[in-house]
Amino acid sequence: MLNISQLESSLWQAADQLRANSKLNANEYSMPVLGLIFLRHATNRFIAVKAEIEKGLSSRGGKKRPITIDDFKGKSAIFLPTEAQYDRILNLAENADIGKAINAAMKAIEDETQMLQGVLPKEYTSFEQDLLYNLVRIFDREELRKATGDVFGRIYEYFLNKFAMSGAQEGGEFFTPPSLVRTIVNMIEPERGNILDPACGSAGMFVQTGHFVENRGEDAAAKITFYGQEKSDTNTRLARMNLAVHGLEGIIRQGNTFYDRWEELLGECDFVMSNPPFNVDGVSPEKVKTDSRLFTEKKIPGIAAKTKAVSNANYLWIQYFYSYLNERGRAGFVMASSASDAGHGEKEIREELIATQAVDMIISIGTNFFYTKSLPCTLWFFDKGKPAERQDKVLMIDARNVYRVVTRKIRDFSEEQLQNITAIAWLYRGQQERYLGLVGDYLNQTHQEAATIEGVLTQLELPLVKLTQFLHTFSDRLGASLPLLKDLPEVEGLVAEDIANQNIETFRATLSELEAGIQELTAARQDLIGELQVHLAWFAEKNPTPNPSPQAGRGDLAPAKAGWGSLGNLNEAQKDCAARFAQFIPQLKTLQKHINEVHKLASRAVELAEKKLEARKQDTWDGKEVKKQRDALDIVRDQAIFAIKSTLYMKAQVTWLQSRFPEAVFVDVSGLCKVVTRDEITQQDSSLTPGRYVGVTVLDGEDEEDIEERMREIHLELASLNDEAVELAASIAANFEELMS
């Protein structure tokens, strides 16, 4: 599994070495380094797409025609001339001018891709040769050769933030996590027309939209026109690079959105999506007071008495997003949590927004989702085309307790958590068939995982049998004591023979425990497999054609197949199926415990033999074969546990949805979601904070896995606090020394 944090850190060390060993300042080296990351990413995409194209090429006389630039259109990749491919640069002769070669590669790409003309960095001849060679090699690591676009997005933004700290960028700009981008895309479903992001950063929203459309089997470049604006020249160039490497086209222009209107897009956008900078306090009120995008009567939320500038620009952004939408447009954007409850002029603007009836959904997101910031946030959604039955309503979702721990400082949504949040919106919109399709997909995946359990348990037998045979043979030939241990020194009054006999006794007791454990495992397996196979056969008969994976937010869900019946009784059939499978959950957990226990005892017996009884010195002990079987046991044990955990995990997703929405229709769920009316919002002082409405989370009963995960979270949180304490202590010490000097 790729450790993205370690990879980012090691990659940054290369850039930091460049900074320390060159005469270039942060502004001079930031874009060239990012350009190499782009080139590595572009090459990855080129190689992958090239392989796909070659499979479908026509041939004459046994020879396939050459690949052309046109073959890459609509394939989410750019065509790379030979001289622009990363491997070509990596394998240059030692005496070659690598800086000149990289410049030529960037120029060749610009010549082939109109959107990139004048965008790519071409300052590589300013670098020392050995530093460039080292940098190129580092970005050719195995992890990066196999990395996907999301990984490169993380690396891009990691470097952007590091460069910002070094003075290469303006501060205050940070990464929009993929989880939040995908949540926005899932909710507004931007599948066509004009899409605007007036604070587009490195175009992450556009890239994810491209995935969404492509996973519906459609060509994003043909259906969508992307419009982006960025104040930073660096981000403007990065956005164009990011679009190009994904085979997307768009108009990205540089400009300060507070003052630079995109006049021709006012009221013309089908979708607006953005993560604007929060809580900006330096906007000139004189420059924006007549802005046509500020459609409310209040317009400007407030002016700071001290600076005479707009005190907080959050509600300028919110008005901009609304004003760019056409009469049926949708918007999704990230906003500071404080904006949902802000008072004074901001409250007045919020009241006018609520009165438009376009506010559709609000989702609270917990802390640690942002890459370099720990602050929580809120996702806002507008829908000017809401149907009459929802005109007066807003869906509130409090997702602060929904997350997956990635590292001690980072959280995100798992794929299933993302789908489950999206399913709440489907039910709110009356799209029951999509919800049932997701439940059906979870049931399919549950049973598919369960079907693998018998096979992995069978594979577990061979190394386990061979290891126990070795251990028994060794035990049978031990005798009353081991002569080789006679020379051991006396320890705590025990002579060597006593120690040897005690070790033999401990070893044989462990071997007896192992035999008993194998018997218990065999019994548990027999109890489960027969009944499970009957259930799997029943499921296959009822659901002969599995649903395709839903990929929530990346395409439409197919309705459940006819094997389950019509939508009218499908929910009951799914609940019955889930209840039937639930009987196996205790058995699966018991089986998991037995597998772990047998694995632990087998490992302990081998270690006792080798460390306490000097088995490696005995003729009866084949160390290589024992290691081989032990390694095999490790592998199949992991496979068996993975199969069981995957089965339980997918079934848990079914339970999560069905326990909250038992009738497959939207209901208010305490601590999670509630549909509120304008009257209710008025009674809550026009607050758009979900926590005010959904109440307190009712915690489900925790099993051992829940507790284990919670303890892991606590451990990571404690480690983070310890790190921060160390950093704070160092800072205090440094400041103290400075004061005393």
Average pLDDT metric = 85
State the shape.
globular
Percent of residues in β-strands: 5-15%
Total helices: the number is 24
Measured as a percent range, the helix fraction is: 40-55%
Q: Got a strand count?
A: 13
Runs in which pLDDT lies below 50 for 5 or more consecutive residues are: 168-174, 546-562
Structural features, described:
There is one protein chain. The protein has helices at 4-21, 26-55, 86-90, 98-112, 129-138, 142-145, 149-165, 178-188, 204-214, 220-223, 233-245, 285-288, 314-324, 344-355, 415-428, 432-450, 453-476, 496-542, 567-582, 585-611, 623-660, 678-683, 691-694, 704-740, and strands at residues 59-60, 63-64, 193-197, 224-230, 250-254, 269-274, 325-336, 359-365, 377-383, 393-398, 404-405, 411-412, 673-677. It is α/β, with parallel strands linked by helices and 741 residues long. It starts with a helix and ends with a helix. The model is unreliable at 168-174 and 546-562 (pLDDT under 50).
